[in-house]
Amino acid sequence: MNKxxxxxxxxxxxKNGEARTADILSAAxxxxxxxxxxxxxxxxxxxxxxxxxxxxxxxxxxxxxENDLPHMMEIYAIARKFMVESGxxxxxxxxxxxxxxxxxxxxxxxxxxxxxxxxxxxxxxxxNYGHAIDRTYDVIEDGAWIGNEDYGVVHRIxxxxxxxxxxxxxINWAIDQCGxxxxxxxxxxxxxxHVLEKIGFTKCGIIHVVExxxxxxxxxxxx
Length: 223
Hints:
The chain is of the alpha+beta class. It has helices at residues 22-26, 48-57, 69-85, 100-109, 166-178, 190-199, and strands spanning 34-37, 44-47, 59-63, 112-117, 120-130, 151-159, 180-186, 202-207, 216-222.
């Protein structure tokens, strides 16, 4: 598996987490008009709106540490509450997902990330990249994946709602790391589906997870 490089420089050598509020997930800003902007973590592909918010909040993405865990779990609690209020009670709230031990394991493995604005954590997510990195995606129904090459995955993405567009910013950051990302979400999670479609993901079919019996909508993007 290729090593993940925590950078946004998009070149041939760089092949290396549902959000809290409707503001973050509705992505009302035009995400189709995108270009690369320089940031402290390298060039990042953003819309003009996202870049303006970035400048206002000094947004940064870094790997999570054990010290971040309490704040991360608070954000997940906020996300579960929002999901219930927005008509999606089964995806996370029914099982109190994600469990703290899983996030702790993600951090130890180096696959858990936080998005900071002015030094304060506003969003969290899991990211990894490699060959067949998520065996859940080996079987897809009612459709097919776009590409068969190495891909990245974003899971367990959540935000606290204080920075508009934080969810889309994190997802675009992940795309910038490898150019090929797969994600999935519950059919009741309309907000994140809207964000993925605005960013440019294609709905590819249905996959199944081990955590419950509810099917998930599978999305993919190659940029």
